[in-house]
Design brief:
alpha+beta, Helix Hairpins, D-amino Acid Aminotransferase, Chain A, domain 1, OB fold (Dihydrolipoamide Acetyltransferase, E2P), 6 domains, 5-stranded mixed beta sheet, 5-stranded antiparallel beta sheet, 25 helices, 19% strand, binds zinc ion
Length: 713
Amino acid sequence: MKAFNNNYIIFFCSEKEWIPFFYLFFITFAFHNNSMLTRIKELTELLHQHNYNYYVLDNHIISDSEFDKLLEELAYLEKEYPQYIQQGSPTQRVGGEVTKNFATVQHIFPMLSLGNTYSFEEIEEFDRRVQNAMLQKPEYVCELKYDGVAISLIYENGKLLRAVTRGDGIQGDDVTQNVKTIRTIPLKLFRDYPHFFEVRGEILLPHKAFEKLNAEREDIGEQPFANPRNAASGSLKLQNSTEVANRSLDCRLYMALGNKLPFITHLESFTKLKEWGFKTPETVQKCNSIEEIRAFINHWDMEREKLPFDIDGVVIKVNDFAQQQQLGTTAKSPRWAIAYKFKAKQVLTPLLSIDFQVGRTGVVTPVANLRPVLLAGTMVKRASLHNNDIIQQFDIHENDYLYVEKGGEIIPKIVGVELSNRLPNAKKVAFVSQCPYCQTLLIKKEEEVGYYCPNEWNCPPQVKGKLEHFISRKAMNIDSLGEGKIELLYDKGLVKTSADFYSLKPENILGLEKRTADEAQNERIVSFREKTTENMLAGIKQSKNVPFERVLFAMGIRYVGETTAKKLARYFKNIDTLANATKNELKEVDDVGEMVAESIVQFFNTVENLENIVKLYKVGVKMELDAENQTLISNVLEGKSVVVSGVFSIPRDVMKQKIEQHGGKNVSAISRNIDFVIAGENMGPEKRKKAEKLSIPILSETELEKMIFSLNY
Ligand SMILES: [Zn+2]
C-alpha cells in the first residue's frame, strides 16, 4: 500500500487513513446502484399496473403524459444500467427488434377451429346433442365472435414467453416480438397466476385505427387493406416491430389452457384472466335456455354495426369444464362449442358504370357506380373493385346485378353476381388498357397487383394530384392554394410542376375564374380576385421557409411518407447527398427497405424530377437541413404529439423547431391523439376549451424547458 499512499492519497490523508474513504466511496457507489435497481423495479411495476388500469380496466388514473414520463425515466435508467433491465419491461412496447424470418413453432395444445353454422336450427341441434350427452342440464356462455387473427400466448412465471399464430392449428409462426408491442397484451402478470399456461384470443384492429392506416397507405401510393382482419394479420407479420407498435392493434383474450388451472367453469376463467392482467371480452352472457341464446344472437346481429371493431358472429360454449371434457372433441373441433355466423348484410343492385380513377402515383383503381341502395343504415352508391382481380373473379358484365355486402366492414364490397338477371347481349367488363385521362397505354408491374399509367408528367390527374400533395398541410402547407385553385391554374396552363408555383405573377392570374360542381352537384365558382391572389402569392412565398424534411415529403416520392422523409433528411442532410445515394446507402436508413430504396433511386434518375428540383432550389426552397436542425439534441419528446398555441418568449417557429429537436412532433389541431399542449400567452380560447374537455395536459413554456432539461440530470 506504500506506493499507493505515496502517489495518490498522501496529499490529503496520512498512512492508513485513506481506508475509510475507500469504503465510503465503495458503499456510496453500491448504494447508488442499488437504489437504481430499486427504482427500475418500482417503475416497471408501476407501469405494468398503469398499463393494466388503462388498457384492460379502462380506468384512467394518470394522464398519458404522466405515463410517458415514467416510461421515459425507465428507458433512460435501463440505458444507463442495462444489467438491471427486468424481464418483460414495459419499454419493450415501443418495438425496435427486427425479425427476418418467423420461426415455426409447434402448439402445445392443437388450435382447433370451432364448428360453425349460419342456421339457428343447427344451434338447436347442437343444444339437443349436448343435452343428450349430459345428465344435468347444461349451462351455456355466449360471447361475440371477433373477426381478427387468432393468437396463442404462453406465459411462464408470469412473463410472456411466446406468441404464436394459429397457422395450420398444429404449428404456427412465432410473432412474439411484434405481439409485445400491443399495449393490451400483458408482458408481466399480477399475483397468483399459474407457473406455466397458455392463453388464447384474437388480435384485432379497431375501425378507427384501420381507417387511419389505410389513409396513410393511400397517401404514399400503397394498396389499402381490404378489411381490418387483413390489416391485423399483415401487421403481425411485419418485420420491423416498431412499425407494428404504430398500428394500434388491440386484443380480446378468452381461453386459458394448462394443468390444474384454478377455475372449473368458462365464466370463472374470465374473472381470473382479468385479475392476472388480461383484456377479456366485455360482452359475455350466461344462457340457460335456447331462447336466451336466440335473444343474444338477435341482439348482436342488430347491434354489431355500433361496435368499434368487427365481429362476424356469436360463440356458444358449455360453461362447465367437467362437462366440456365429457363431451370431448372431434378430430377438427370441440363438441362443447359452436359458432353462429351472422349472414353478412347484403343487397342486390345493378351496376351502372365503372370509373377508372387515376391517383397521383398513377395507380388505376376501378370503382363501380351502383344504383343507390340502402345497406346496413347507409346509402351505398359506389364500391371499390380494388384492381382487376374482382372484375375477373366475378366475370362482371355490363348492367350486371351485383351483390354488395357490408359485413361489419367499412367499405362496401362486391361479393357476387346474380346471373339470372344478366342481359342476353351484355358485354364483359374489360379493364381499360389505356389511361382514361391521357390515353397512354397502361403498364402492369410484375410484383404489383394494379395497373398504372406511366405518363407521370402529362397525365392530368397525376399532375394535379402531385400538385395537391405538394401544397398539402403536412408538406408545403400552402393553404391559400386550396379549394379548386390548382385545378384552375392547371387548366389555364399556368402550373404544371411544383416549381411553377414560384414563378406565378399577379398579372397572369388576376381575374381568372372557373365554374365547377362539387360532389353534391352544387355549383361553385373559383376566382382570383385581388385579395385571393395576394394571399395565394404570399402563401407560396412563405413556403420557402418550410424545412427540408417537409420539402422532401412534398416531392411525392412513392412510398416516402412523412416519417420516412424526416429520417432521410436527417440522415443525408441535403438533396445532393440523397440524390447520389446508392440503394445500399439508402437502406442504411431506418425503415427504408428494398422497395422504398428502389423508388427513391428511380425518382432521382428521372430528368424531369431533377430539373424541377433545380428550379425549386433556385427560387429558394430549402434543399438542406437547417443548421440548428442538423442533429437531434435529445429524444425526451420522442413519440409525443404536441400542439403549440399562443405567444412565447421565442418565435413560434423556433418553439416548434425546439420540439422537433427533442424528438417531438408538432401537430396543429387538438384531438385525442395529442400528448400535451404548450400554451403561451393569449392561447386561443377554443383550443384551450377543447384541450380541457379532452383532459389533455396544458404546459407552459417553463414547464417544457424543465422537461427538456430533466434529461441532463
Ligand atoms: Zn394517364
